[in-house]
Amino acid sequence: MEKISLEQELKNNSYPGRGIVIGRSADGTKAVTAYFIMGRSSNSRNRVFVEDGEGIRTQAFDPSKLEDPSLIIYAPVRVLGNKTIVTNGDQTDTIYEGMDRQLTFEQSLRSREFEPDGPNYTPRISGIMHIENGKYSYAMSILKSNNGNPAACNRCTFAYENCVAGEGHFIHTYKCDGNPLPSFEGEPKLVDIPDEIDGFTDMLWNSLNEDNKVSLFVRYINIADGTYETRIVNKNK
């Protein structure tokens, strides 16, 4: 697979929707993830990321303007032992609870499908990072309608073992802007993952469309001991 520039990919797409990046830092010592949300409606834009234990959750920036919390208020990131879960919806909890009962990542998601927000039928994108005894692997999933047909759910899981230093993968909900919004197509995109968290955070935030970006989360986890650094950027302040 040809590696693409994540910076250019974001700058050239005004509305990828919600996106997950997972990979390994160039020096090989960190497991890296990033999650961003964007919005076109006032309800979607009225959000911020806040820390919640070892994870994060979304909350309304102005509670008086919150219209429908059902698809926008959730915990995008949760930690279960040596596993970090990152998703674009409340399937974070589904994965957490399933894996806590010894189900696999893929099995946990069998009970879920795309979001019920026709005509877009927003895909549910999810990621799982697993660090154990100095080894690191991750997987990504997308649950989406069959080319906009809600009668069928397409389930794709991509697993990456023995992760290569300096490489990661990027998956997002929408191929581009549109009405209805077209779902992401193909495999997660191969991208570079740098060593430095602040530079990576700045690049991501500055590359997202200024009108549509809402919040960004970035975490670098030390593969040797599980300690981590986190950055959160919110447009609403």
> DSSP strand (E) fraction?
35-45%
Element order, helices and strands? HEEHEEEEHHEEEEEHEE
Superfamily at the CATH H level? Answer: Inosine monophosphate cyclohydrolase-like
Q: Got a strand count?
A: 13
Please write the CATH class name. Answer: Alpha Beta
* Widest sheet, order of strands: 11-10-1-2-12-13
Number of separate domains: 1
What's the helical proportion of residues? Answer: 10-25%
Distance between the termini: 39 Å
Q: Which ranges are low-confidence, i.e. pLDDT below 50, for 5 or more consecutive residues?
A: none
Number of helices: 5
Named CATH topology: Glutamine Phosphoribosylpyrophosphate, subunit 1, domain 1
Secondary-structure content class: mainly beta
CATH architecture: 4-Layer Sandwich
Your description of this structure?
By secondary structure, the protein is mostly beta strands. The chain has a single domain (6-234), classed as Inosine monophosphate cyclohydrolase-like (Glutamine Phosphoribosylpyrophosphate, subunit 1, domain 1), CATH 3.60.20.20. Helices cover 15% and strands 41% of the residues. The protein is built from five helices and 13 strands. The chain has helices at 6-11, 42-45, 91-100, 105-108, 197-207; strands at residues 19-24, 30-38, 47-52, 55-60, 77-80, 83-87, 124-132, 135-146, 149-160, 167-172, 189-192, 213-222, 228-234. It is globular. The mean pLDDT is 97.
